[in-house]
Design brief:
Distance between the termini: 67 Å
Number of strands: 9
Largest sheet: 6 strands, parallel
Radius of gyration: 25 Å
Number of helices: 22
CATH architecture of the largest domain: 3-Layer(aba) Sandwich
Length: 463
């Protein structure tokens, strides 16, 4: 078929318009047309794992797009091909009215370089340092650590499900990923899926829209040995996703698979969560990670200093641990700030330098309250404090209110229920507001600029 190369360009162009940009660049862009004969085509892939991913998730999309342009009963074959053969084929391609999208050799290499973050059969990347060896255990986290390690090795007293409960920045993501790292590096299984609740929801919606829901169900119900699902609170109010996840959990539990959840709220405290899913989330062991004590904070800082090769005197380490006591991310921020300022400015790393860096972090943290955020947002958007807590559904009131709730969650330690009450809203409404702003931030809309502007003011203490 003389026009197959043109058809292939059309198919890629159409897929690019429907897939998320990161999914297209990772999985579709590198695929090249190698050979074709009538309705049989052979496509290049960097490695065998890449081929499996394409067959499991994208083959129906290829077939559907070919069908839309009149190429029916297409037989698609994948072949691991060297960069040289692909480049040679690319040089002989005819021009087309559709834009050709190329992948640089640098990106192609990155797909299979050893030693980088582990990528799984499905989902997000694990962070390289999120292993059991790199986790600093303290009284605040010893139970959660032991439970996670036990699950990675086998079971927790007969249970194969674990729920990690913690506020942001305390290590629940570290432990959940450590389980996955352990299972993969010890060749216990390769079918480890690490995703967020939002990822799961978006993938399900995409499957429904593209008539691939059967593959979606089969993937999670029958091709998964370990499911690691973060940010469970995102499922609030998403009835269809909750029902699908509940059924998926039944399949996995019946097959004795491992499941790790993480969230900032207990399952019983997540609003608009159906009874079926709630009962399954509480079926396993629930463990909580609290803020680290002083001794643990010192050990965390020393561990991080060793990893990043920072030369920090003991008295400076102890000062940082004393001043920054909220969470691990705050500790890392202080440590990095001290090390960076010392290196960039050529200063000695001493208590005086540490005080100059930590003062900004601790001052901003101490001054930020729900009320100060409320006042800041009202001032910036020229609305009254009566307006922002009113039942008004006008957009000029609703968006600032949602931003204020989002910022209150980000910059204060208050629970969502308390934040909602401060704005005369229910718990579920507060979660909806936070999720709404998070979605708009990803879209880089006007809200993105406004939230960044307000965040900068808060971090600089300009309240």
């Amino acid at each position: 078929m003389e026009n197959m190369e043109s058809f292939w360009k059309q198919v890629k162009y159409k897929i690019k318009k429907t897939l998320p940009d990161h999914s297209y660049r990772m999985w579709i862009d590198p695929v090249k047309l190698l050979e074709y004969d009538n309705n049989h085509i052979k496509l290049s892939s960097p490695n065998a794992y890449f081929i499996k991913r394409l067959k499991d998730n994208y083959l129906p999309i290829f077939e559907e797009e070919f069908s839309k342009i009149g190429v029916n009963d297409i037989n698609i074959e994948f072949k691991v091909s060297s960069k040289e053969s692909v480049n040679s084929k690319e040089k002989n391609k005819n021009t087309s009215a559709y834009p050709a999208v190329s992948l640089s050799s640098k990106k192609t290499k990155q797909l299979h370089l050893p030693g980088l973050n582990v990528r799984f059969n499905n989902g997000r990347m694990f962070k390289k340092g999120f292993t059991f060896d790199d986790f600093v255990v303290g009284d605040n986290s010893s139970f959660a650590y032991s439970a996670s390690l036990s699950l990675a090795h086998g079971k927790i007293k007969g249970s194969s499900m674990l729920y990690l409960l913690a506020k942001t920045g305390l290590g629940k993501s570290h432990l959940s990923q450590a389980v996955g790292h352990h299972i993969i590096t010890n060749s216990l299984s390769k079918r480890v899926f690490y995703i967020t609740a939002e990822d799961f929801t978006n993938e399900m919606i995409f499957s429904l829209r593209n008539n691939t829901i059967a593959r979606f169900k089969e993937k999670y119900r029958k091709k998964c040995d370990v499911l690691i699902l973060e940010d469970v609170h995102f499922l609030s109010g998403k009835d269809a996703t909750q029902k699908e996840l509940a059924i998926t959990l039944d399949y996995l539990l019946d097959a004795d698979k491992k499941i790790i959840f993480s969230g900032c709220e207990l399952p019983d405290e997540i609003p608009k969560l159906n009874a079926q899913l709630k009962s399954r989330l509480t079926q396993g062991l629930v463990t909580q990670i609290d803020a680290p004590d002083y001794a643990t904070r010192v050990r965390i800082l020393k561990k991080k200093s060793k990893i990043f090769e920072y030369e920090i005197p003991n008295q400076v380490t102890e000062y940082i641990a004393q001043e920054l006591c909220d969470d691990v991310r705050q500790l890392e921020s202080g440590l990095f700030g001290v090390a960076a300022k010392g290196q960039l400015m050529g200063y000695n790393i001493d208590i005086a330098l540490a005080k100059s860096v930590i003062a900004n972090i601790s001052r901003a943290k101490k001054r930020v309250t729900i009320e100060t955020i409320k006042k800041l947002v009202c001032k910036e958007f020229s609305i009254s404090e009566i307006d922002i807590v009113s039942p008004s559904r006008k957009r000029r009131i609703v968006k600032p209110r949602q931003m204020a709730i989002f910022l209150s969650r980000k910059y204060t330690d208050q629970p969502i229920k308390k934040i909602g009450t401060s704005f005369n809203k229910y718990h579920a409404t507060a979660i909806y507001a936070i999720n709404s702003i998070e979605r708009e931030l990803k879209q880089k809309s006007v809200i993105f600029e406004q939230v960044n502007y307000l965040s900068k003011k808060i971090e600089e203490g300009k309240l």
